Amino acid sequence: MAEKVFMIALSPTMEEGAILKWQKKVGDAVKMDDILCEVETDKASMEYVSSQEGVLLAIVKDVGASAKVGDTIAVIGEAGEDPAPLIAESAPSAKPPTSTQASASTPAPASAPVVTADTSTNGRTKSSPLARRIAAEKGLNVAEIPGSGPGGRVVKADVEGYTPAPAVKTSVPASSPLNNDRVPVSRKRGTIAKRLSESLFTAPHFFLTLGIEMDGLLAAREKLNEKRKDKLGLNAFLIKFLAEALKRHQALNASWEGDYIQNHASVDIAIAVAQPDGLITPVVRDCGSKGVLQIETELRDLIDRARNNQLKPDDYSGATFTISNLGSFGIEEFTAIINPPGAAILALGATIKTPVVAEDDSIVVKKIMKVTLSCDHRVIDGAVGAAFLTEFKGMVEDPYRVLL
Amino acid sequence: MAIITLREALRQALDEEMARDPNVVIMGEEVAQYDGAYKVTKGLLDKYGPDRVLDTPITELGFTGLGVGAAFGGIRPVVEWMTIQFGLLAIDQLINNATKYRYMSGGQFQVPLVIRGPNGPAEYLSSQHSQSFASYFVHVPGFKVVAPTTPYDAKGLLKSAIRDNNPVIFLESEMTYGHKGEVPEEEYLIPFGSADIKRPGKDVTIISFSKPVLMCLEAAEALAKEGIDAEVVDLRSLRPLDHETIYASVRKTNHCIVVDEAWPQCSVGSWVQSVIQKDCFDDLDAPVELVAGEDVPMPYNHRLELAVQPTVAKISSAVKRALYRS
After folding, report:
1. Tell me: the pLDDT tens digits for B28-52?
2. Quick check: B324 and A155 CB within 8 A?
3. Residues B45, B128: one domain?
4. How far is B204 from chain A, CA to nearest CA, in Å?
5. Which of B129, B139, B179, B243 is catalytic?
6. Could you tell me if B127 and B260 lie in one domain?
7. Does the beta-carbon distance from A130 to B283 stay under 8 Å?
8. CATH of residue A393
9. Which candidate, B117, B138, B87, places its Cα nearest to that of B26?
């Protein structure tokens, strides 16, 4: 019996995926666990591992085509079976829902029976033939002109009364390194846009900034690195201190779930990694029970794989806390948008030699790193956030506190 | 210029053609001694005698066939049907004989026959006597079909019909026999295939023929008060159709409605609609709407009888829809 192969959610947030490559051709035998195709999900490219067996009878979604979770992407069955009925069945789901169907069922008033004939829409711009002709003569795109006729039909008066918006200049100065291209939104860019908008527009953010003296930590790191071939990065230390501070402040390691707050026992810290096509946040799990060395090893692996676009959804989802470090760009301080489901994110600035007034009123030069904590006020109050941040500062400046 | 009724205009046309050509004869029910059911043939029996103005029995198939046969033989009969409704009985003589002999004889025969009588609804005539059958004839190659609205057009077209060597269906309207208009003293003919712009306008084209043209003119006057300048095109000739005049008007106004008192399906109006939408597609800013008789048998109840026909109000609102002003 031939059966449909459905697009499945290959990441927790995936709603739709694009076929990057088919590993099997029509006619190939497919065994359980064979790689059927590669799919670009919202964050990464994933392998689609078959849970069905048989012969690949038809490919419904070709390379480049995108499929919603649940859409038929192929048909598998026994050699010689006809996949056509199953392909035909899957076609209607691809049809966009027509919002006008509901209104078509409302009886039209008897005095205006002509209106009912005009309500079909396929995403096409309705326009009168004359309006199209005039638009063409004027070099206007009829699809950009608002229609005043029945069902939004663009008519002569609409075209004649239309003034095109001052067009984006299409001519590019010869010397310009810039362009006027329209860049399609990649799946990943779309996910970033959606998740961060949701975060900033639904979670009330507040921001706490303080400067941390880095002289001690930097000296200690230098000393440790003297005897090491693989140098330890600063981030591994900071993640370790954050984990220790989080262990003492449950509210910062929690998520807002609407009708309850979910505490997390494991401290899973993500780090924002820039990639050419948008940032990704690989997660070091259970940092609370790991040492700096192990954190460093895992971090390196994650960052390597992130740069090669090889992270799996498990590698970048579900962080309870996130750090973002723009210090290498010389950014002194900045605010970051919380990375859900976490309730806080720490933005790390550059470490800068700064004149500091010491206890004895003398001015000394210290290496100061400014950090800004963004908190979800639904979960974390100001004082709670401040207490946590102060604890973190204290640990970085005076590592013995970790032992307490 | 004399102002006369349409009835008188038809009578003049018959009289002048009978005087001009002794082969022109009139036959039909009560056309002679009674002067015709609608008095169109008044005085012609006295003037031309019983050999040329013949009362027939109530046998439409019979006397229509007689007319077809006479036409083969070189006579130019004008057959009056008391109404086109009764002509249904005789339609076989016309379709299978009158429209075919010229074609099937390779041009050896001609059929210079005119069939005339009132078509379409009048008032208080109920279902069987209120039907507009223009499309029954316009449908058939071999016929010429005309349907005048004014006395001027009626006279000029009837004279052309009598002189034509093909079967002509001449559709009148009972309600317009008394309609008056200017008719010149001197002789004139109106050629077939020529529509007439009864009212020039720039905003919308209203196309019609026969009695409804008068409603269209009334609607145009009412619309003018609302700032809508309608052009009313009277087809006059339904077959052949004057495409040139129709298209020129539509290309000028970009908006068009067609008014036909017949039922909507496969009517002359729906045919005109279709040619406009095909040939003026890129000139149309709105669909061409048809204002037709409602798709029901004619009710006897007078209010309903009026309600199912095209009205000034229906025409006006169709115009406004076509102009997106409703």
Report:
1. 999 999 999 999 999 999 999 999 9
2. yes
3. yes
4. 13
5. B129
6. no
7. yes
8. 3.30.559.10
9. B117
**The two structure tokens encoding residue A307:** 């740069």
Mean pLDDT on B260-278: 97
pLDDT of A176: 80
- One-letter amino acid at B10 equals L
Question: Which residues from A are below 8 Å from B286, CB to CB?
Answer: 128, 149, 155
Residue B245 pLDDT > 90: yes
Q: What is the pLDDT of residue A105?
A: 40
Low-confidence ranges of chain A (pLDDT < 50): 92-121
Chain A partners of B319 at a C-beta cutoff of 8 Å? none
Nearest neighbour of B285 by CB, restricted to A112, A150, A156 = A156
Q: What is the ipTM of this complex?
A: 0.74
CB contact under 8 A, A114 and B282: no
Q: Do B254 and A149 touch (CB under 8 A)?
A: no
Size of interface A-B (CB pairs under 8 A): 34
Cβ B282–A148 below 8 Å, yes or no? no
Among A132, A133, A155, select the one facing B286 at the smallest CB separation: A155
- pLDDT confidence of residue A84: 84
Q: B256: domain CATH number?
A: 3.40.50.920
Domain assignment of residue B245, given as a range = 196-322
**Interface with chain A: mutation pick from B324, B325, B326, highest number of A CBs within 10 Å:** B324
Helices (H), B164-298: 212-225, 243-253, 268-279
Q: Which residue of B has its CA nearest to A129?
A: B282
**B129 catalytic per annotation:** yes
Instruction: Verify whether the Cβ–Cβ distance B286 to A149 is below 8 Å.
Output: yes
Catalytic residue among A304, A314, A381, A398: A381
Of B281, B283, B289, the CB nearest to A114: B289
Nearest CB to A129 within list B281, B289, B326: B281
Give B99-115 pLDDT, tens digit per residue. Answer: 999 999 999 999 999 99
What crossing angle do the helices spanning B6-20 and B151-163 adopt, rounded to 10°?
30
End-to-end Cα separation, chain A, in angstroms: 66
Same domain, yes or no: B168 and B232: no
Residues A356 and A363 sit within 8 Å (Cβ to Cβ): yes
CA B140 to chain centre: 15
Residue of A116, A118, A155 for testing the chain B interface, max B β-carbons within 10 Å: A155
Distances (CA, A) of A213 to A350, A365, A393, B51: 12, 10, 8, 131
Residues A142-150: contacts with CB under 8 Å, at least 24 apart: A148/B324, A149/A118, A149/B286, A149/B324, A150/A114, A150/A115, A150/A118, A150/B324
pLDDT of residue A239: 95
Q: Are residues B307 and B229 part of one domain?
A: yes
A129-170 pLDDT tens trace: 999 999 988 888 888 898 888 888 999 999 998 987 765 656
Q: Are residues A19 and A147 in the same domain?
A: no
Range of the domain at A274: 187-403
Kindly report, residue by residue over B211-230, the tens digit of the pLDDT: 999 999 999 999 999 999 99
Name the percent of chain B lying above pLDDT 70.
100
- Average of per-residue pLDDT values in chain A: 86
Q: Residue range B294-299: average pLDDT?
A: 97
